[in-house]
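Thread title: Can someone regenerate the structure for this chain?

I was given the following input by a collaborator and told the matching structure tokens would be attached. They weren't. Posting the sequence so someone can regenerate them.
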Amino acid sequence: MLETILFWGAIIVVVIAALYLFSVYNGLIRKKNRVENAWAQIDVQLKRRTDLIPNLVSSVKGYMKHEKSVLTELTKARSAIMKATSPGSKAKASSGITSALKSLFAVAENYPNLKANENFMHLQEELSGTENKIAYSRQHYNDSVMEFNISIQVFPNRVFAKRMGFGKKEMFDVPEADKKPVKVEF
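Best answer:
Regenerated them for you:
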């Protein structure tokens, strides 16, 4: 009788442990997929921005014949973001585009006809909207990464996560140069 109770008790403990491990594994898979989806959303917005840049450059070229360096910088920044693969390299490349766009719009202030051009205004609005979407996507990605990283670092998940192949994810950090306040002069 005692042997039967111990046998069934051991079976119940093994079943509960297996169910717990399945639960941990499935929870980590869900969070990992959320991180990957959030990263894909950043990629979508960055792609949208890089697709808008050639249109912006072509609409500006006729007005800014003397400002080729700004357009060259923007084109180089676009190429860099298209080659970047990791969150860190994408953040750095994205910073380059942001800087180049700031320069472009600052230079555009010297060209009243350009500022009044419908195509330029439309592209500027599109880029502004895209920048907002990129910021939201970055925030969502970092929130998802934080949730995932916490899940694999807390006990008892920490014990099983590494053995199941789950490792810490990289946040999308903004480079130090972009954290400095923007200087506006009139």
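The chain has one domain: 27-174.
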